[in-house]
Amino acid sequence: MDEESLKTAIMEEASKDTGPIFQAEGINFNEILQLRLGYRNILVIDHLWEFTSLTKLELNNNQIEKMEGLDQLLNLTWLNLSFNSIQKIEGLESLRKLEVLNLCNNRISVIENMDTLEKITLFFIANNHLGQLDNVLYLRGFKNLRSINLCGNPVSKEDEYKFFMAAHFPNLMYLDSKSLDEKTKNEASTKYRSVLFKMKLEELQKQEATEAEQRQEAEVKLHTDAFVEFLNGSHLFKSMIKDDPEAETLCCVPEVAQLLQTFEQQIVKLCMQLFEFGLAEHKRRDTEVTSFFSGQNKAVTYYQSIASQILANFEQQHRERTEELQQLSDLDLLKVKMDQCNDEIDLLCNSLMELEFEMAGELENIIKLLDTTISDMVCNFSETAQEIFVQCRDLEDSYNEKVREVAVATLESVANDNVDEDLPDDVKMLFTDKHTVMDALATGHDNHLLKINDRETQLVTRANAWKVALIKGIQHDKMKWHRIRISDTHRYRDYLREQLEKLL
């Protein structure tokens, strides 16, 4: 399969349907809606990336062994790969609009890798190597499925096959190209009642678990987008005391345990304050960005309407001028009139270019306003966050000082053999060495501050990076479309001039 063979196939179909209405060199692959490539000894699916509008693709009766090269066919609703040598279902992830899939007469032994085909309605996989009825249950997830053809597979020869399918696919209308009557469905439902009840319960539990996981993922994404993920609880606090065995030993001293509990409550309270503020600020930023895109779209629509009117007026007058030129027999007069037409074309191009640069300037002003507003928002958010992190460090300093006082008192008690008998032996052993205790306190204090500082840096850095990426991305898109519109204007001008030249 190559570009020339695709052009040939398109031309053949065009000649059958409507005659030779276009030449091969004029074919735009991205405008083709249907493509028949059956009976062409194709070995590999390739060169289809330009067929972005394709809705129906026939690749039956070839020698294809692997399902590939279909990624760009996002509008495909019908795919026929029957009578090939395919062994595995794959490469269909992008075909979310697919409604009809024909894989009959291949070498497939497992139904799999179809999760994204939520719109599938007709599925034909007759005469393959499917041997497990349980594998067919994979298709229960497709709620729009109305017709399945499994005949010619080992599974279709099992005694309970028809009732099994009717019971497990209550919405199925056709099985192996035959209508499923209500009597068969009712009998199957009765026969498999207990099995279906258990299966539906399991599916419901699985669905609930999946939905819960999706909600959690969406929640984490929201928190991450707001730069405050894992600040709605004790995550920061736990990260501060993690992997600190001396701190765990110190906590066995009752006074230290109480101080640590109070410290945790204070840190969590500050984190929750930052978390809630972060979500509120994210909502404000999101509203501002949404408003920007709405305003940008309105501006573009306004200028496009003006450009459309300019083009409509020009094209009407240009048609009249062209018709006049076609009637002229005087070559000199024809050239004079053509020069006038070219002048009009230049005027059109200049008008469109002026309009384009006016629109670009308007969009640039809108972007600058967004940049200023978002920068202020991010700055305000970062400053407030930094103030809260300062309070976290103050709490850590206060906590460390109080723990140090308790540690000094405990060291004196141990030295004077005046220590609580309930104090664990490893704690008593730790407090026999003042340097070890003081080093542990200093190390723990440094680690706690490091965790706070790292989280602060992460938040501020990501917020600023998001702002820069947002504005940079918007400006990049603006420049991209600006260049495309200028290029389109120049191409249109050149096209008009070429058409005039043909009149000579």
How do you describe this structure in short?
The protein is mainly α and 504 residues long. Helices cover 63% and strands 4% of the residues. It contains 11 helices and 8 strands.
Please specify the SSE layout and strand pairing.
Elements: H1 3-17, E1 34-36, E2 56-58, E3 78-80, E4 100-102, E5 122-124, H2 133-136, E6 147-149, H3 161-168, E7 174-175, E8 178-179, H4 182-191, H5 193-225, H6 235-241, H7 245-250, H8 254-327, H9 331-415, H10 425-430, H11 434-501
Parallel strand pairs: 1-2, 2-3, 3-4, 4-5, 5-6, 6-7
Antiparallel strand pairs: 7-8
User: Which spans of ≥5 residues are poorly predicted at pLDDT below 50?
Assistant: 17-25
Please tally the β strands and state the result: 8
Helix-strand pattern: HEEEEEHEHEEHHHHHHHH
What is the overall shape?
Answer: flat
| Strand arrangement in the largest pleated sheet | 1-2-3-4-5-6-7-8
Supply Rg: 36 Å
Q: Number of DSSP helices?
A: 11
Task: Report helical residue fraction.
Answer: 55-70%
Secondary-structure-derived class: mainly alpha
Q: Determine the strand fraction and express it as a percent band.
A: under 5%
- Main sheet attributes: strand count, strand direction, barrel closure: 8 strands, mixed
Distance between the termini: 42 Å
The overall average pLDDT, rounded, is: 90
